[in-house]
């Protein structure tokens, strides 16, 4: 793994860090010597993650879509990895308004609340990096995830618009993963479905969560100090063109 000396001691807050991409990202930053804070609404999972990762600095059990939780979770912060999200597979005509609102509330409104809280603190301290997990589902249409896709498209323009306002003090970028092998993915895809998906990906496999974490470490580092307002795909070629 590349070493970024400047990340040592940085206060990095990762949302959705009790599982999948968030957990792997938190572990990558901890290995860089950063002070990692976990935010997740799954108390049991967060406590287990803290027990298994003694190098994490702390955790907060809260919901990113609740303004009061977000305000309590944030203290001094150098890097935000705003990553918590949910997805629910359903035919478009079967999506209830309740489901639509829940997905938008966590995946888009939650990103807004966390990003605004971080931006207020970072502009005051005159430094910081805000990174968000969007998705290739936010760049092209995909069947069965209309609410999710709309939320992720929103995250991409949230990123770009914030980057314009916060430059040159705070950098803001989002990452668009393709298929990543996480508990979220395993909950919705059978082994046969996973194998079929892999066939259609030029790299012939899902991403490992740690590969997203390593991209986040690069984006938070000084090596990326000219990168802002970008939506960076990490998808094994999935959206490169017809395959
Ligand atoms: P996961 O389900 O393994 O982990 C998500 C974590 O977020 C869980 O620990 C969960 O408790 C937490 N969480 C969910 N809603 C929350 C809320 N309102 N407040 C606080 N914590 C909350 O999922 P995974 O796959 O690691 O996904 C992480 C992010 O990556 C999500 O934003 C997802 O949309 C995105 N993503 C995932 C891809 C994949 O293939 N797995 C592909 C592209 C994007």
Describe the structure.
44% of the residues lie in helices and 14% in strands. It is of the alpha/beta class. The protein has a single domain (5-234), classed as 3-Layer(aba) Sandwich (Rossmann fold), CATH 3.40.50. Strand 1 (11-15), helix 1 (20-31) and strand 2 form a beta-alpha-beta unit. The chain is globular. The mean pLDDT is 97. The protein binds 1,4-dihydronicotinamide adenine dinucleotide. The site of 1,4-dihydronicotinamide adenine dinucleotide has 30 residues, from helix 1, helix 4 and helix 6.
What layout of secondary structure does this protein have?
Layout: E1 11-15, H1 20-31, E2 35-40, H2 43-52, E3 58-61, H3 67-73, E4 79-82, H4 97-125, E5 129-133, H5 146-166, E6 171-177, H6 183-188, H7 191-199, H8 209-220, E7 231-234
Parallel strand pairs: 1-2, 1-4, 2-3, 4-5, 5-6, 6-7
Helix pairs in contact: 1-8, 4-5
Bound molecules: 1,4-dihydronicotinamide adenine dinucleotide.
């Amino acid at each position: 793994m590349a070493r970024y000396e400047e990340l040592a001691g940085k206060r990095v807050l990762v949302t959705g860090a009790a599982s999948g991409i968030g957990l792997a990202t938190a572990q990558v930053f901890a290995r860089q010597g950063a002070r990692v804070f976990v935010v997740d609404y799954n108390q049991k999972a967060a406590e287990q993650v803290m027990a298994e990762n003694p190098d994490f600095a702390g955790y907060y059990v809260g919901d990113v879509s609740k303004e009061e939780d977000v305000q309590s979770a944030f203290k001094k912060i150098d890097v935000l990895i705003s990553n918590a999200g949910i997805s629910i597979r359903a035919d478009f005509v079967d999506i209830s308004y309740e489901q639509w609102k829940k997905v938008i509330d966590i995946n888009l409104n939650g990103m807004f609340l966390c990003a605004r809280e971080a931006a207020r603190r970072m502009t005051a301290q005159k430094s910081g990096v805000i990174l968000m997990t969007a998705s290739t589902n936010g760049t092209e249409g995909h069947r069965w995830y209309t609410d999710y896709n709309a939320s992720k498209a929103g995250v991409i323009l949230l990123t770009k618009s914030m980057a314009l306002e916060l430059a040159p003090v705070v950098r803001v970028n989002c990452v668009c993963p393709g298929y990543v092998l996480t508990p979220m993915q395993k909950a919705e895809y059978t082994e046969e479905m996973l194998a079929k998906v892999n066939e259609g990906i030029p790299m012939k496999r899902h991403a490992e969560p740690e590969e997203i974490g390593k991209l986040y470490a690069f984006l938070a580092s000084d090596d990326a100090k000219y990168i802002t307002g970008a939506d960076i795909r990490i998808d094994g070629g999935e959206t490169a063109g017809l395959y």
